[in-house]
Structures
1.
Amino acid sequence: MKPLLIRGGRVVDPAQGIDKIADLLLQDGLVRGIHQRIDPPDDAEVIDASGSTVCPGFVDLHCHLREPGYEDKETIATGTRAAARGGFTTVCAMPNTNPVVDSPALVEFVLRKASDEGSVRVLSIGCVTKGSNGEELAEMGELAQAGVVGFSDDGNPVVDSNIMRQALSYSSAQGLPVINHCEVPELFQGGSMHEGWISNRLGIQGIPASAEEIMVSRDIALAELTGGRLHVAHISTAGTLELVRQAKDKGLAVTCEVTPHHLTLSDATVMGVRDGGSPFDPLTSSAYDTHAKVSPPLRGLADVAALVQGLRDGVIDLIATDHAPHNRVDKLCTIDEAAFGISVLETALGSVMSLVHSGEIALPWLIDRMTAAPARFLGRSDLGTLREGAAADVTIFDPDAEWTVDADGFASRGKNTPLDGMTLKGRVVATIFGGEVVFSASP
Ligand SMILES: [Zn+2]
């Protein structure tokens, strides 16, 4: 492997408080240094990064790679290629595959497959319960030994409060978080979008904000009871944000994540309203967009604004994609029949960069929430930073490049995005994983 010199970019490494124009040298799979000017070693490959931002490779705590069992939606190979295209060098795979990842053998399958066929690093999340059916705890100790980085029944909430209590108790013994998809089934069943005036207007059964908030509230109480480490997946409402804020004020081991879509899209997207449009306009043929059906649902504008505020003030610990690829058939149907989920990895940066361009979030802070913060969450000092000796995982992006989303061109098998055809500003130029270029926008 040749040394790689990345020359003249704006190097942003929040873990070290670095934000300056500099050269970055990668050698033998590790970061060698950041300096004003580095003379390239004799055999080095030089990448000109002037005008671009150079930062640690993004770390995604929450994605669905679908393998084994749902290879029609995604595979570890296609999902990690999508990750590389999106600037992600580490992704954590959720266990709701078929079979689910509730045993060491399945963890080993995912990790081996990833090292054989993956473009980037894959970490495995194990189930909370056997079969992910919420009835009996999985062998959490064995899963931890096999290398999982957390426990989740994502796709399903952990409904039984006593099971959740036990999960938080046992996982704290492993020093690992329980990542819960918080939604009370009695309130979300049958719903396809956020409950509000737009769901009323469209005649679609809604999912109230309280469906999420009730379970978040319960889980925080259980985290306090057990001392366990709770991570609330993909928060979507202003109420949830307040609950997490209060839990943190109390000093509980509670963290949370937010997705790019919950930060940038509202329930008006289900109406087919796009940039510049208004929910008061007449309905167009884009209304009832199944690609905007996601769990938890896209919420109202006040929720979106609250989440952006929560990201800015640090109550929200990190950005995670909840990349949820589906095949065509899963979305070419009525909104009631459609599967929940958005294919996110390849649009994540372009989406969240809108918050930087609007002045709502500072670029270094955004990068922190996608690199240093998730790496810290995982307890990995070798990831999410460009410190000397860290893994040579680097993302180079042009913050000002405009591009049009073309879902058909995704590396992901999931072409399911409500952003298809939209223009985003901020594009990955190259992704380097372990010192090797795994994606380059230029031929
Ligand atoms: Zn979920």
Note: The chain has one domain: 57-385.
2.
Amino acid sequence: MKRKLQIILVITVAALLLFACAPAPVTPDPSGEIVIVQIDQEGAMRFSPENIVLTAGQPVRLIVQNQGEKSHEFMIGSEVAYRSSDGAPIGFEDDFFEGIDVAGNITLGQGVMLMGIEGMEGMDMGEGMGEEGMGEEGMEEEGEEHGGFMLMSNPSSGTTILEFTVPEDKVGTWIIGCFLDNGSHFEDGMRATLTVVAP
Ligand SMILES: [Cu+2]
């Protein structure tokens, strides 16, 4: 009997620990708005929040801000793609934004480059988008490159706003990631979970 109690206690403690470690899911406010921040202070590469839940069929307004000291990417997809030569993570096999009508509803921040949307690729060349930001950290290497939707923002670039409605066929778990510096941002924790739930 005593042993049974011990087992129950161990399981309870383990469950509590697991619960405490998982970042709490964040949902958009009642107007559909959710702010996603890119952070890199003191080596802490991450997105905040790290766990986002969207509901299919509901209009959402993603507000993306680079509050770090480095350039960062914003991509959403599933199935991380790795470069064949060195195994570095370089993007996603499946692009979340494929099939999502977002093109006409993007407000780019200053110095933010948009890629992966046909007929809309370009950048708002704001101040501070020098050679430095896009050069060495560039996204192409030996024929393998990012596919799909991507925002590339320099430090202190403005706010980028993406407005869209998540289609029901996107229900599932997705990853938000930055693959700069040869995938090291992603490996250092610059990733977040995006879960799309059915209405
Ligand atoms: Cu990054």
Note: The pocket of copper (II) ion is lined by residues 45, 72-73, 178, 180, 185, 190 (CB under 6 Å).
